[in-house]
Amino acid sequence: MSRWAVSLDRREKRFILVTVDLTLTALSYVAALALMGAPVADMLGGGVGQLTLAMLLGMTGVTSVILKIPNIRLNAYDAKGIGWVGVLSLISALIAAALHRIASAPLDSSTFIVFGLMLFVALASSRLVMLEVLVAFYRMQGKRCRVVIYGAGTTGMQLARALVHHDTIEPVAFVDDNPSLQNLTIAGLPVLRPMDIEAIVAERQVERVLLAMPSLSRPKQSQIAKRLTAAGLEVQALPSFSQLIGQEPLVDKLVSLSAARIMGREVRDRQSDQATQEFAGRAVLVTGGGGSIGSELCRQVLSCAPRKLVIFELSELALYEVEKALRPLAQEADVELVAILGSVTEARLVRHVIEHHDVDVVLHAAAYKHVTLVEQNPLVGLANNVLGTWTLARETMRAGCERFVLVSSDKAVRPTNVMGASKRLAELVIQDLAARANRTIFSTVRFGNVIGSSGSVIPLFKEQIARGGPVTVTHRDVTRFFMTVEEAVSLVLVAGSMAQGGEVYVLDMGEPVRIWRLAEHLIDEHGYTVRSEADPDGDIAIVEIGLKPGEKLHEELVIGEGHLTTSHEKIFTVREARLSEIEVASAIRSLREAMATADVDAAAAVARRWVEGYRRDADTVEPRA
């Protein structure tokens, strides 16, 4: 029968409902006459009585269609629908009274009142009976998904009522954290304790939990969902009313924050006129052009109107993405854009690119910079960061390019990890070539963390906040220097343009930022509260996981004592110890031999010998305060 009911179209269903209503109208009319002692047989046996009944049914049917009562779906039958049935019953009673008066067969007014009441009860109850019968057939036809509603508030009650007659979903209980609601019955369902969820699931064969607490913060909903998912349940969350009408995004309530706003840094202008003039009309090669710093270098160099921009990148995907993003900008600026796929350690490829494209300026940002990954892969890190820099710089000097700028890191200062040691060796290589170069001006620019880069903690924190936490911090007291990528790249270009040869520039990074406080700030900016001993009901917890191998508590920017000012207030120079040409040659030779034999210890020995303060040991990690 259920399949037959489903197969009917809307017109056929309306016809059935009208037929049922008219049948009940006739029965209610006859029952009212009999109840009030009227001569039913005499009245209906004659032609006038039959005509009166026929006209009553016809006019009732027309009124029902006008009121669109047959259009009300059974599973949408509510108080409004009952109200319209009441209106129809009243009109039918008035029609019956009028017809009897016209037919000169008046009855006591109480007869028509009884008729109206009986018709109202019959029509209203018939809808409920038909709905229950139809739902029963649906239940017999297929298995229904048994669900528990988490939250017995207003939203939960509305959801329960909406699901009572659902074809495939059957609510069996509420669970709620509010003790005052527990052990009550709401909307026909018991309210149970969340701590008993596993027993509820087993006893009532529950398959799914519906979170009906849209006002609860997203992290707390995520925490509840994780706990329920761990119990093998499917969890779905009901959106809030403001989300349903489009005032809030359904998927993500996180807002994009300005990086400068997070760090409290002022927005700086881009490169100066001096930098623009230095790159205008020249062929510029940017290595690592698909990375965070490299791609921003490409964007800002394009604004300087170079003759050609060559993007050198090891990652095919990164090169594809940056080339796709920059192609329209290059066309608009009438700049030739060239994408080169390869490694800076390939001497022949580097030589061909520099010569074929007549490169004037090299901005070297290519490096492996993830501390933990380079610590786990020291040979690859040293080969790319040191030998790659040596190969690229040597070919730059051989071709007689105008400038070479090395983008370095604060981790090169008294490093405690392979990545920092490799960057310091790269700085020493550039300083040595700068002392021997005739035409090429070599310089190094050193700065700290870039907000939003692939190695920054900020994207990780945002991802953890979006998942509901916890946010992980290596140490409660760890600090780092931060700068926006736009400001860092702008200052790199300015420093590179003012270099005379051999300078090591250090950017003003401001005060170091405590990472724990940064995590608290990000949680607060996203509209959540930090869960702690002082606030155990907070949204997101911050967890201390311990320093990783080779990681410092505090980074530094200067190896020696003090620094010198330049013509730019945010750029300084430092005077640091250098290696001689023989020492650099020895370091490169030993490093190449270690690479050839895949000797990790030999490679580490090169770094320990030539990099001040470096030791690749477990005890390099600073003790906790």
UniProtKB/TrEMBL annotation:
Source domain of life? Bacteria
Spell out the coiled coil positions from the record.
none
Q: Which InterPro entries match?
A: NAD(P)-bd_dom_sf, Polysac_CapD-like, Polysaccharide_Synthase-Rel, SAM-dependent_MTases_sf
Q: Which residues cross the membrane?
A: 15-36, 48-69, 81-100, 112-138
Q: Which UniProt keywords apply?
A: Membrane, Transmembrane, Transmembrane helix
Which positions fall inside the Polysaccharide biosynthesis protein CapD-like domain? 284-575
Record CDD domains = UDP_invert_4-6DH_SDR_e
Family annotation (Gene3D superfamilies):
NAD(P)-binding Rossmann-like Domain (3.40.50.720)
| Keyword Transmembrane helix in annotation | yes
Family stated for the protein in its record: Belongs to the polysaccharide synthase family.
Q: Under which name does UniProt file this protein?
A: Polysaccharide biosynthesis protein
Organism field? Palleronia pontilimi
